[in-house]
């Protein structure tokens, strides 16, 4: 029954954790218009990473807005706090040596830069990979899977990103995915190759 | 350069995730007086799990109070919100197939039951393992590593758990660790064996 457990004092270091788990932690932060494909790409990326036996977790509206952030509304201050908390939670996942994937419109440069700064200030700093999922408004509006753009055009939804509220495109994202040039598989490959090139995950044999 | 990525539609199921990563998710929620040994045991448990190449992450005052919950004070409402958020974040880790370890005094039954309920209501339900780190007040007060009990006795800290604020012991914790009967290694072995018995992690060969 002996489990032969021996401990060294103090917490496991980030380097030791990365070595033991075979991956470094990082946050891949998707940003883009509603219906641009953020969630679809993040979901496919999560699948691809898990099939390599790598730990990854996707934060999205479903698991955040109905859980951690269910106390928040949609006024400007609440939206800012929403993104702040997502930044902090993604940082926790990244510091656990997981690859956090966030799939939120996150339309403002300032909010995204705040999340980036949290990762940069962490000891040790953790990679923050901003992925701009760039789909033209005409395309996402024609998709409109939930009828949100239609409602926004009709004035039934106020301050809808791209229609009645601004989307501030990232000036210098780590990855720029133009959805009229690559499909989901192509987008996932781009991110995977980036993670490999950065030494966050190992290249497959 | 082909990465041969193929996807199935939708997200990876929890069962598929557990299979791919070789572990189920769970939250191990330590509760007990200040200086009872919660953090020490959680730190050692995290080490033991990581050395088995299992994903685990410890939430504690350092990574929560200075990050996600830095907007919260210490009034009753803030304390409740502090524990609520910790419950939600541990749920996210558990649903990622990680083993979340929380090491907070969390003195109130109601707050801990709220965290437990979040796990029970999740689809699928996730294990919530309450570990009562039971050290007599006389012992923790004699340890007093940060001099907090002394300050509390002197009235310099108000509402200090065990001195001037109640600690509500868990009536039915999954695991009851009496620190005058087991050392840190013994405590870790108890939790590990529990996780194995529940099929959350595999028994070692």
TrEMBL record, chains A, B:
Organism field: Vanrija humicola (Yeast)
Lineage: Eukaryota, Fungi, Dikarya, Basidiomycota, Agaricomycotina
Keyword Cell division listed: no
GO MF term list: adenylylsulfate kinase activity; ATP binding
UniProtKB keywords: Amino-acid biosynthesis, ATP-binding, Cysteine biosynthesis, Kinase, Nucleotide-binding, Transferase
Pathway this chain belongs to: Sulfur metabolism; hydrogen sulfide biosynthesis; sulfite from sulfate: step 2/3
Protein name from the UniProt record: Adenylyl-sulfate kinase
Reaction(s) catalysed (UniProt annotation): adenosine 5'-phosphosulfate + ATP = 3'-phosphoadenylyl sulfate + ADP + H(+)
One Gene Ontology biological process: sulfate assimilation
APS kinase domain residues: 24-178
Function text: Catalyzes the synthesis of activated sulfate.
EC class name: transferase
InterPro entries membership: APS, APS_kinase_dom, P-loop_NTPase
Enzyme Commission no: 2.7.1.25
The family this protein is said to belong to: Belongs to the APS kinase family.
Record-annotated membrane-spanning stretches: none
The keyword ATP-binding is assigned to this record: yes
Pfam families tied to this protein: APS_kinase
């Amino acid at each position: 029954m002996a489990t032969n457990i021996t401990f060294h004092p103090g917490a496991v270091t980030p380097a030791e954790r990365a070595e033991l788990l075979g991956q470094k932690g990082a946050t891949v932060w998707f940003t883009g218009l509603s219906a641009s494909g953020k969630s679809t790409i993040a979901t496919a990326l999560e699948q691809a990473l898990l099939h390599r036996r790598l730990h990854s977790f996707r934060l999205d509206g479903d698991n955040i807005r109905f859980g951690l952030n269910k106390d928040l509304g949609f006024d400007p201050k609440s939206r800012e706090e929403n993104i702040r908390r997502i930044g902090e939670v993604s940082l926790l996942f990244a510091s656990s040596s997981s690859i956090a994937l966030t799939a939120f419109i996150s339309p403002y440069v300032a909010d995204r830069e705040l999340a980036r700064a949290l990762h940069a200030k962490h000891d040790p700093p953790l990679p923050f990979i901003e992925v701009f999922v760039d789909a033209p408004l005409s395309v996402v509006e024609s998709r409109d899977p939930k009828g949100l753009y239609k409602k926004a055009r009709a004035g039934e939804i106020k301050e809808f990103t791209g229609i009645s509220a601004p989307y501030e495109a990232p000036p210098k994202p780590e990855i720029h995915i133009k959805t009229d040039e690559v499909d989901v598989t192509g987008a996932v490959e781009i991110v995977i190759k980036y993670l490999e090139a950065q030494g966050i995950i190992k290249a497959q044999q």
